[in-house]
Amino acid sequence: MKLAILSRAPQAYSTQRLRTAAQQRGHEVKVLDTLRFAIDLSGPEPDLQYRGRRLSDYDAILPRIGNSVTYFGTAVVRQFEQMDVYTPNTANGITNSRDKLRANQILSRHNIGMPATAFVRNRADVRPAIERVGGAPVVIKLLEGTQGIGVILAPEVKVAEAIIETLHSTKQNVLIQRFIKESRGRDIRALVVGDRVVAAMRRSASGDEFRSNVHRGGTVESVELTPEYEQAAVRSAQIMGLRVAGVDMLEGDGGPLVMEVNSSPGLQGIESATKLDVAGAIIDHIANQVGFPEIDVRQRLTVSTGYGVAELVVHGNADLVGTTLGDSGLWERDITVLTLHRGTTVIPNPRKGVVLEGEDRLLCFGKLEEMRSMIPERRRRRAKVRKLPKQPIPDE
Ligand SMILES: Nc1ncnc2c1ncn2[C@@H]1O[C@H](COP(=O)(O)OP(=O)(O)O)[C@@H](O)[C@H]1O
Ligand SMILES: [Mg+2]
Known about the structure:
Helices cover 30% and strands 26% of the residues. The chain is of the alpha+beta class. The protein folds into 4 domains: 96 residues, 3-Layer(aba) Sandwich (Rossmann fold), CATH 3.40.50; 66 residues, Dna Ligase, domain 1, CATH 3.30.1490; 110 residues, D-amino Acid Aminotransferase, Chain A, domain 1, CATH 3.30.470.20; 77 residues, Regulator of K+ conductance, C-terminal domain (Alpha-Beta Plaits). The radius of gyration is 23 Å and the shape is globular. It starts with a strand and ends in a 9-residue tail after the last helix. The C terminus is likely disordered.
């Protein structure tokens, strides 16, 4: 394949390793400076210029978009997506993972363990939010920090309030998060490629530091993950739309607590801790997937007027419980079931013989008018209520 690594740091360890791994496997590979692209929307089809010239054809890209260039970088990735070039990480996935609040919101409906988190704006709401996540000591985080910068442990409620007020006064948005004591100074980084964890390490903070980031002096060691941790990592990456991701998890008493999902994980720490060829695994995955550019399903499907994607909940349609998909009458109503979600498992292309259960959720494509009548009243109401301001954040 012909692969472009989008990076502003051609000399960095990760970039070098990825380039070498691609070359060793006989691929043609170039490292292209993310900021030297020009997005061209002047012609009949989406196009890209690089350093002032029309870009040659690539089979795949591997975005390594730094935090400081998220907006432009994701615009370039999105342009490649529009041109049907494969990317393991979509522009949407990168954008979603970059903002810790947004990532938490997206993961929160999927049964992924996370530290209790709150987000408030008004001064009067700060103290109740701190209490709700468990009181002091409490963690305060800038929404878009990395490498441990912008993560603070406030020992007392009063101090926390003062810090949050100060940050608010300088227009900074912050998360209020429960301090996971039992994991103090330690966390797990799992490197997810495709549908599996290819390497994992435990990071331990140095001295009395509570942040275990390598950039904060943390040390690393290889770990064997239990299936529970592995599943949490893989599912988090999938939900975020990232096929290459570094998932950070705290080790809570009740199991893994996902803190963040990184879309451009560094390879140096994890390769040196585990002695595994992570770069090679990433390149192999891309080479395997090259025929399948990421398709924005909604963008493509909703083009047909009157048709769209909706999620039907079986328990809201009591007559469906206990019937098979074939007998459900959905097909006759011009509704195709794309996936069946049961607990944390997903059955793609469910067969006619599958018997529907009360808690099943069906992701469907079909006539919106037909599906509208099947979306249960209660869910629609709840969705509306959520949009109202000043709703209390539900307890976790
Ligand atoms: N809620 C928490 N409880 C305990 N430790 C935490 C918590 N949140 C973060 N940490 C520690 O701080 C480090 C940095 O936090 P993280 O959210 O990953 O920010 P960054 O994006 O800067 O790496 C984590 O690796 C972990 O060691
Ligand atoms: Mg982190």
